[in-house]
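Task: sequence design from structure.
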């Protein structure tokens, strides 16, 4: 799919400026077409017989035809395969059979995940002819849950950036403002959900790749506990390094928190192919009283924008109005974990540098170069094996200390990032710009190092861009995080599905 040209960009930018001046969100379509339904609503109607999967998929395909040319969120659409799967889902329901919670529901798959018979390019020109020969474990889980795989969402080259552009498929645009990034690396996924192309999308996250796009596009996104969803991520070498095994997770992006719960239910489970896959049920909450929620109003890494602080306070007010006690905390272990990310993940990423140098595009090469420059400022230019080993030793100590904090404060409320969504290309424009972006995004890296589940919840609009907050909870207690997320969501305006600005 070709990238949007300069004329379209400028026209969309003018429309974005007009929308910001009005101080209003873009309008929604007035009719309740099937593509506008939440996944839960669609699933209920499918089982009641008042909607067919075929009608739902056709509605999503029409929506894709309408808006995808303006935002370039999906770089491959399998209309024929999706309609065939929808027909099979409809037939099963007429016979009284249901595959699972996602039976007949369309889902977009990120273009770094193997789906048999489909292209898997990871945004790399050299992989343009790569076709997966088997499903990744996370795709097996979605098929078993009954999902209809509708298309592939765009991602940056090598899925290593906070945007979603590459030389092969072009740029995915933020549906709220073409001047700003949709986030990355699951930017195409979040944009597709926000604009109504699909009710659900799969993403993965080791440094914010679910949560940052959700924040930028105004939709909820969940990073589960590692091991909850069986996943493999090996588009280049076929093997997952230690950091990927311990920190990378698969997760859902949706238009409401309840839909995240629905997709998590279908996603979760054991797969013997995955070393860290854990056949663990969802634990229930303990205690009869509402938990005390800790809020991180400041940190020692970099200042927060007024918009980010205001979003946090809106969430605090919503929780207090619902009867929760909120207490300000400092959790310095999270800030230390952010620094550890730049040792543990970046040292393992060195194995990919020859591939990036050979096959990467200019933005990924600039971004990775700045990443290593900033990591060197923290850990020196040549960390040793002893540094790496001590890093993992320290990681274990930090996890234990944060788990003790979570005994008293089972949910922590914190920013997604310390600034509003970035402009396109801002984070790799220069070393100082990269340094600012990395400091602002410290919560995006801190939480993966420690392995706690986290949820992004939208909190409205500011100057035409979405705002949001992040919730972190105890390991494998995703249901607690989702429950508190719904409290915040209920007090905020629903932003999506929306019409892309300039579309």
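Answer:
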């Amino acid at each position: 799919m070709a990238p949007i040209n300069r004329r379209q960009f400028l026209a969309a930018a003018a429309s974005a400026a007009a929308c910001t001046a009005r101080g209003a969100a873009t309008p929604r379509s007035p009719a309740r077409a099937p593509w506008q339904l939440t996944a839960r609503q669609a699933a209920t109607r499918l089982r009641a017989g008042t909607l067919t999967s075929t009608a739902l998929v056709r509605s999503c395909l029409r929506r894709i035809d309408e808006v995808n040319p303006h935002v370039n969120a999906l770089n491959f659409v399998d209309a024929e395969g999706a309609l065939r799967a929808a027909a099979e889902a409809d037939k099963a329901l007429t016979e009284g059979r249901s595959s699972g919670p996602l039976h007949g529901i369309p889902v977009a798959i990120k273009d770094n995940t193997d789906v048999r018979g489909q292209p898997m390019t990871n945004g790399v020109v050299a992989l343009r002819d790569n076709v997966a020969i088997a499903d990744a474990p996370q795709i097996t889980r979605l098929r078993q849950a009954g999902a209809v795989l509708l298309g592939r969402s765009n991602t940056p080259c090598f899925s290593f950036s906070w945007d979603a552009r590459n030389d092969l498929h072009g740029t995915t645009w933020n549906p709220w403002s073409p001047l700003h990034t949709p986030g990355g690396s699951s930017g195409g996924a979040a944009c597709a959900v926000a604009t109504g192309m699909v009710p659900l999308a799969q993403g993965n996250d080791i440094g914010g790749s679910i949560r940052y796009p959700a924040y930028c596009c105004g939709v909820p996104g969940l990073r589960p506990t590692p091991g909850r969803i069986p996943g493999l991520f090996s588009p280049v070498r076929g093997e997952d390094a230690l950091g990927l095994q311990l920190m990378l997770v698969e997760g859902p992006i949706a238009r409401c928190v309840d839909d995240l719960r629905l997709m998590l239910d279908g996603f979760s489970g054991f797969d013997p192919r995955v070393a860290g896959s854990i056949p663990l049920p969802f634990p229930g909450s303990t205690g009869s009283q509402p938990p005390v929620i800790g809020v991180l109003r400041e940190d020692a890494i970099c200042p927060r924008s007024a918009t980010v602080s205001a979003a946090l306070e809106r969430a605090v007010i919503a929780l207090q109005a619902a009867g929760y006690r909120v207490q300000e905390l400092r959790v310095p272990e999270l800030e230390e974990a952010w620094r550890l990310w730049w040792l543990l993940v970046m040292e393992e990423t060195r194995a990919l540098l020859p591939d990036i140098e050979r096959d990467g595009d200019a933005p990924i090469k600039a971004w990775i170069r700045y990443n290593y420059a900033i990591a060197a400022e923290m850990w020196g230019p040549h960390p040793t094996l002893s540094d790496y080993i001590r890093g993992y030793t320290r990681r274990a100590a930090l996890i234990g200390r944060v788990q003790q904090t979570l005994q008293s404060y089972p949910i922590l409320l914190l920013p997604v990032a310390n600034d509003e969504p970035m402009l396109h290309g801002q984070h790799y424009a220069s070393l100082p710009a990269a340094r600012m972006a990395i400091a602002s995004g410290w919560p995006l890296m801190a939480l993966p190092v420690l392995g706690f589940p986290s949820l992004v919840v939208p909190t409205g609009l500011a100057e035409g861009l979405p705002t949001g907050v992040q919730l972190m909870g105890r390991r494998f207690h995703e249901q607690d995080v989702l429950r508190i997320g719904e409290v915040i969501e209920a007090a905020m305006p629903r932003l999506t599905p929306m019409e892309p600005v300039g579309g």
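The radius of gyration is 21 Å.
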